[in-house]
């Protein structure tokens, strides 16, 4: 399938970016941290326009191979110019850590601008949202620049259970920047690939079950899955309001935490969840927990390790079909996506049944015909939060109370540590947080991460542990991208 152009305006953007890019190309901003970039802004060696130009050029070079970005923001350079003027004027806004920083958003996070919000599907191409998603609005209020929309497993991996991770109709198959044949995981694959390959400073992803933790692990970046409700889901194309959460993906813990700090908080458009979680937000924010000694008292580098603890009923929790998770998500998806679609200003589709009909009518896209829409069809058959759905939700709450909650309280644990992403259903079914940090590279150089999980509101402790682990191991390595002259992917032909 042919790649859809990033934007009709991309060629114009790129032509205006080239001169600025060449003046700053000596520094690889693809690996620069937010702190680095702010120091360059402060000493006048870099402008936001130059930084945005760098990333636009890098996306243009790498995206035909990696397929990690669906669209770039046609207003990104003009937004960068505004940021530069604010900095020169001494605006209070320009003192924020995210001011002038380009960030990609997963393509299920709405923006009220010239970008589309489509969940990777042609069915929503041309739809218009009423306003920015809550998290997008917070980023813009912090002075960040929305660089574009990252690809994803279409409909956040909820259209079908047959499509490969990282595939969506609009951008094709996303590729792991370390080993092209390796699974990029999903559904926030484009956000993870983009952060790993230096196509933005950071990105936002979303998770219902594993969709931040898994791609972060697979693409060797940091991914933070916040407590459900800590970040607003208003304006985010939903799967389950009970499990959905929005979180940052970046190359370092510090950068991910800086973005997290900007997007947490109460939102009246997601009032029930964000009000319940608001008291978890620490006074003074989350960056205060970036402590090198964060493992002390929690034995490697000072941590007390309790090995081989078992979560009661773990095998049942991990069983999608029998834990109750599948039953609940199918019903919740139909209700939530119908509500989202009904509120759009304009849209080619207004309900899940419309989506199913659209896909049936557009079988010219052979991948849609091949992969099908099994989850859509199963969800459409549901009848709201009927008795069996309520029983499934109650069952998951009991599994959590008798599982991870009892384990952590009885053993006085600060966190549960697991390899890769095998733990995500345990965190997902009751809205618990987790952080994935790069931990190494296995056979053929395929990345793997380590996941630190905890109970609701435990982000400060998880950040301390994740940051201390990162600083002690320094495990992450950049992917083998050719950055001199023309950018390319050394493994993309594999």
Automatic annotation (TrEMBL):
<feature type="signal peptide">
    <location>
        <begin position="1"/>
        <end position="19"/>
    </location>
</feature>
<dbReference type="InterPro" id="IPR036928">
    <property type="entry name" value="AS_sf"/>
</dbReference>
<dbReference type="InterPro" id="IPR023631">
    <property type="entry name" value="Amidase_dom"/>
</dbReference>
<dbReference type="Pfam" id="PF01425">
    <property type="entry name" value="Amidase"/>
</dbReference>
<keyword id="KW-0378">Hydrolase</keyword>
<keyword id="KW-0732">Signal</keyword>
<dbReference type="GO" id="GO:0016787">
    <property type="term" value="F:hydrolase activity"/>
</dbReference>
<feature type="domain" description="Amidase">
    <location>
        <begin position="51"/>
        <end position="275"/>
    </location>
</feature>
<protein>
    <submittedName>
        <fullName>Fatty acid amide hydrolase</fullName>
    </submittedName>
</protein>
């Amino acid at each position: 399938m042919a790649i859809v152009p990033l934007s009709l305006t991309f060629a114009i953007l790129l032509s205006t970016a080239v001169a600025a890019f060449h003046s700053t190309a000596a520094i690889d901003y693809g690996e620069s941290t937010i702190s680095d970039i702010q120091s360059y802004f402060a000493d006048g060696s870099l402008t936001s326009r130059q930084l945005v130009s760098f990333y636009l050029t890098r996306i243009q070079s790498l995206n035909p191979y990696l397929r990690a970005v669906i669209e770039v923001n046609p207003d990104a350079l003009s937004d960068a110019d505004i940021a530069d003027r604010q900095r020169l004027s001494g605006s209070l806004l320009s003192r924020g850590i995210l001011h002038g920083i380009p960030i990609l958003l997963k393509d299920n996070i709405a923006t009220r601008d010239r970008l589309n919000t489509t969940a990777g599907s042609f069915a929503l191409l041309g739809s218009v949202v009423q306003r920015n998603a809550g998290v997008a609005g917070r980023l813009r209020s912090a002075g960040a620049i929305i660089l574009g929309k990252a690809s994803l497993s279409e409909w956040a991996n909820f259209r079908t259970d047959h499509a490969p991770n990282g595939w969506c109709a609009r951008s094709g198959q996303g590729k792991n920047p370390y080993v092209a044949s390796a699974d990029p995981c999903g559904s926030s694959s484009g956000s993870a690939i983009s952060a790993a390959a230096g196509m933005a400073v950071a990105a936002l992803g979303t998770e219902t079950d594993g969709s931040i933790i898994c791609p972060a692990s697979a693409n060797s970046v940091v991914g933070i899955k916040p407590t459900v409700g800590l970040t607003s889901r208003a304006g985010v194309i939903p799967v389950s309001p009970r499990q959905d959460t929005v979180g940052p993906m970046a190359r370092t813990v510090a950068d991910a935490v800086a973005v997290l700090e900007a997007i947490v908080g109460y939102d009246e458009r997601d009032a029930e969840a964000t009000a319940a979680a608001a008291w978890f937000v620490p006074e003074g924010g989350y960056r205060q927990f970036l402590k090198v000694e964060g493992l002390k008292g929690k034995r490697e580098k000072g941590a007390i390790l309790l090995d081989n603890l078992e979560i009661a009923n773990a095998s049942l929790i991990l069983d999608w079909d029998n834990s109750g998770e599948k039953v609940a998500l199918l019903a919740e998806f139909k209700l939530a996506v119908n509500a989202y679609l009904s509120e759009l200003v304009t849209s080619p589709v207004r309900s899940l049944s419309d989506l199913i009909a659209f896909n049936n009518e557009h079988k010219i896209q052979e991948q849609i015909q091949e992969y099908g829409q099994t989850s859509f069809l199963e969800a459409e058959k549901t009848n709201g939060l009927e008795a069996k759905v309520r029983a499934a939700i109650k069952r998951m709450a009991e599994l959590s109370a008798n599982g991870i909650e009892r384990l952590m309280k009885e053993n006085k644990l600060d966190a549960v540590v697991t390899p890769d992403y095998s733990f995500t259903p345990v965190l997902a079914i009751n809205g618990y947080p987790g952080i994935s940090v790069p931990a190494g590279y296995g056979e053929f150089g395929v990345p793997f991460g380590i996941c630190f999980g905890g109970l609701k509101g435990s982000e400060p402790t998880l950040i301390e542990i994740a940051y201390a682990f990162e600083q002690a191991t320094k495990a992450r390595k950049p992917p083998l991208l050719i950055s001199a002259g023309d950018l390319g992917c050394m493994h993309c032909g594999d």
